[in-house]
Amino acid sequence: MPSERRLWKIVFENFLKSLQPKLKEKPIGSDAQGNKYFELEADPRGGRRLPRRWFVPANEESSVPTPEWSQWLRGRRDEPPTSEEIAHNEAIANMKKINAENIAQKFRLTDSTDNETEYQENSKGFPDMSEKFERQPGNLKSKIK
Prior knowledge:
The chain is of the alpha+beta class. The chain is 37% helix and 14% strand. 3% of the residues are buried.
C-alpha cells in the first residue's frame, strides 16, 4: 500500500504544479522581413535542459528565417544576431555576387557557335567520331571500308 500513497502524492504535486503560473515567452527580436523571434528559458527542474526558441512569420512568403536567425533558432549560437552582424554578412554576400558577375564576364565566350560539333550522333546519343579515331592501332575505320 505505500506505493499507492506515493502515486497519489505525485498526482497531487503535479496538479499543484499545473496551477502555478507558466513561464512567459521572452521576445528576442525581429528581422528585416518582419519575423518575430521568441525564447522560453531553459528549466532544468521542469525537464527542459535547453531553451525553446521559435519565430512567428510576418506573412506566408517570409516563412524562412535568415541564416543568422536560423543558427540561433537551432541552438548553434547562444546570443541572437545583431543588426550590425546581419548588415555585415549581407555586404559580404553582395560583394561575392558582384565578384562572381565580374569573373563570369571576364571568361565569357564571345562566339558560342565554336562549341557546336559537326559529328552525327550514334544510336546511344553520343557523337560518332569513328572516322577520326582508330579502332585498332594503325587501322583507321575509313581505310577498312
